[in-house]
Design brief:
Layout lengths: L1 H19 L7 E7 L2 E10 L2 E7 L4 H36 L9
Antiparallel strand pairs: 1-2, 2-3
Helix pairs in contact: 1-2
Length: 104
């Protein structure tokens, strides 16, 4: 029981951190110097194909934060999944050994 309470508290904290992230954007922000001009582009993959999106220079830092939020969100989702897995294990242990059904 104590383990399940601890897992629930850890899950609640991870969910709070996930909600606090704000905007999310998958991809990598790249800076491309073109002579005098500095350009930014966001690249990602969809169905195995790369795609590129022009990012205005005045949005570059904001977009960079969104991509960092995306990476953090993925880590938090993996953590939530692992916590759920641990809760299932703890529940199974608390229930004791499984009984095999009798053949009819």
């Amino acid at each position: 029981m104590k383990t399940q309470l601890s897992l629930m508290a850890r899950r609640r904290k991870a969910k709070e951190r996930l909600r606090a992230l704000g905007n999310l954007l998958e991809g990598s922000l790249c800076r491309a110097d073109r002579g005098e001009a500095v350009r930014f582009q966001l690249t990602d993959k969809v169905a195995g194909r790369s795609r590129t999106l022009y990012v205005p220079a005045d949005m570059a830092e904001e977009v960079r934060q969104w991509t960092q939020n995306w990476k953090q969100a993925k880590r938090l989702l993996r953590e939530l999944s692992e916590l759920s897995r641990e809760e299932v294990r703890a529940s199974a242990r608390a229930a004791g050994p499984r009984k095999t059904p009798r053949p009819r």
